[in-house]
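User: quick one, fold this
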Amino acid sequence: GFRMGAEVTVRESFMDPIVDAITRGDHRGALAGCARAHGASLGRLCMGWLGSQAEADEAVQETLLAAFDAMAQFRGESTVRAWLFGIARRVCARRVETRGRREARLRLVRGDLDVSPSADSLLAARREAERVRSALEQLKPSERDAVVLRYDGELSFREVAEACGIDEAAARKRVSRALERLRAVLTDAE
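Assistant:
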C-alpha cells in the first residue's frame, strides 16, 4: 500500500531514469536520455541567449558534451534539468563573451507563435522581439540569466537558484529586480 505523508514526497531524482543511468555508470545512456528529454528546451534556452540557431545548436552539443564529462561528479543535489541549464548558461556566457557584446543577440520571442501570420503581424512581432532583446541587453548579465532561465527556460525559482549557484530567495529577488528594470526600460522606450 501507499502511505500518505512525508513518504509521498519522494525526490523526483529517484524516479528519473537519467539519474538512474548516471548512478549505474551508464553515462552514454544518460547522455542519450539528456538529449531526448532536454535537448529541445536546451535549444530554446541557448537560442534565447545567443540569438543564432546555428550557434544555439553548437552550444547544445557543447553543453551535452560538458555534461557527459561531468557525470561522474553529478551528485543529484539538483534536478538534471537545472544541472544541464546551469552548464548551458556557462557555455553560452563564454560564447557571448568571446563573440563580443555588440553581436550578442537574445532571441526570446520565437516566430512559431502564429500558424499563418500576416506580413504585418510578423513585422510587429519582429519589432517587439527587438525591443525586448534591446531591453534585456541593458540588464546586468546575472539578472538577464535569471529572467531567461525563469521565463524562456521555464525553470522553477529553485531550479533558477541551482542553475545560477545562488539560494532560492536570491533567485526570486534577482528575477523580480530584472522584471522591474525590464518594465522601466520598455516603458521609457515607448
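User: anything notable?
Assistant: The radius of gyration is 18 Å.
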